[in-house]
Amino acid sequence: MPEGPSIVILKEEVQQFTGHKVIAVSGTTSIDISRLKDKTIIAFKTWGKHFLICFDTFTVKIHLLMFGTYRINERKETKPRLSLVFEAGELNFYTCSIKILEGDINTHYDWSVDVMNDDWNPKKAQKSLEEMPEKMICDVILDQNVFAGVGNIIKNEVLYRCYVHPESIVEKIPRDDLSQIIAECSTYSFEFLYWKKKFELKQHWEAYTKPLCLRCNLPFVKKQTGDLKRRSFFCTNCQKLYK
């Protein structure tokens, strides 16, 4: 599943179509695609893992799910879920969820929970964590209502950086460590973006899919953790378990 930084890259790649009119639209999506024809794209936005195509009175929300892809100015052999054609190019989406959001996009999203948004508010994240004291930190970090855009790669890397075991209980984690985790969720997301643009993201992974802890030279534990049962890679020697 693409994480927030990958969706930001998509937004940057399609800026050429901002202000352009959709001259043809097709696809297998169940939304009323006729609404898009002859409409002008006002802006492209992102919220976490959501890609947003904003028109004057509505927005098309695209979620790439686990295996979604897109093509700019080219097509795959399979029929797209949604295809938008412009005078100077086209935009095609595959294997994704598509919905229409009516009215002002700002009424649908809280931008302050998006870790890559200019309005990101770490104090709000801190308050949200205080309201779920008994949850494991591995689940909370993946909660899109708290850390929109953070996915499993970022979760693993952040907890490794912060020396915190993924199964630690939120209320047991020292406040300074929680603050560091919150800050790193945003910091690492921007580093993820930088490395991905340079096609070297995997070179910088220190925990995700790795066999050994770089700090302790001991085998990582690989385990499905928390209620979400997402894969975690962690060192039981240097990542402290707070329970």
From TrEMBL:
<dbReference type="GO" id="GO:0008270">
    <property type="term" value="F:zinc ion binding"/>
</dbReference>
<keyword id="KW-0255">Endonuclease</keyword>
<dbReference type="InterPro" id="IPR010979">
    <property type="entry name" value="Ribosomal_uS13-like_H2TH"/>
</dbReference>
<comment type="similarity">
    <text>Belongs to the FPG family.</text>
</comment>
<keyword id="KW-0456">Lyase</keyword>
<dbReference type="Pfam" id="PF01149">
    <property type="entry name" value="Fapy_DNA_glyco"/>
</dbReference>
<keyword id="KW-0378">Hydrolase</keyword>
<feature type="domain" description="Formamidopyrimidine-DNA glycosylase catalytic">
    <location>
        <begin position="2"/>
        <end position="89"/>
    </location>
</feature>
<keyword id="KW-0326">Glycosidase</keyword>
<dbReference type="GO" id="GO:0016829">
    <property type="term" value="F:lyase activity"/>
</dbReference>
<protein>
    <submittedName>
        <fullName>Endonuclease</fullName>
    </submittedName>
</protein>
<keyword id="KW-0511">Multifunctional enzyme</keyword>
<dbReference type="Pfam" id="PF06831">
    <property type="entry name" value="H2TH"/>
</dbReference>
<keyword id="KW-0238">DNA-binding</keyword>
<dbReference type="GO" id="GO:0008534">
    <property type="term" value="F:oxidized purine nucleobase lesion DNA N-glycosylase activity"/>
</dbReference>
<dbReference type="InterPro" id="IPR035937">
    <property type="entry name" value="FPG_N"/>
</dbReference>
<keyword id="KW-0540">Nuclease</keyword>
<dbReference type="GO" id="GO:0003684">
    <property type="term" value="F:damaged DNA binding"/>
</dbReference>
<keyword id="KW-0227">DNA damage</keyword>
<keyword id="KW-0234">DNA repair</keyword>
<dbReference type="GO" id="GO:0003906">
    <property type="term" value="F:DNA-(apurinic or apyrimidinic site) endonuclease activity"/>
</dbReference>
<dbReference type="GO" id="GO:0006284">
    <property type="term" value="P:base-excision repair"/>
</dbReference>
<dbReference type="InterPro" id="IPR012319">
    <property type="entry name" value="FPG_cat"/>
</dbReference>
<dbReference type="InterPro" id="IPR015886">
    <property type="entry name" value="H2TH_FPG"/>
</dbReference>
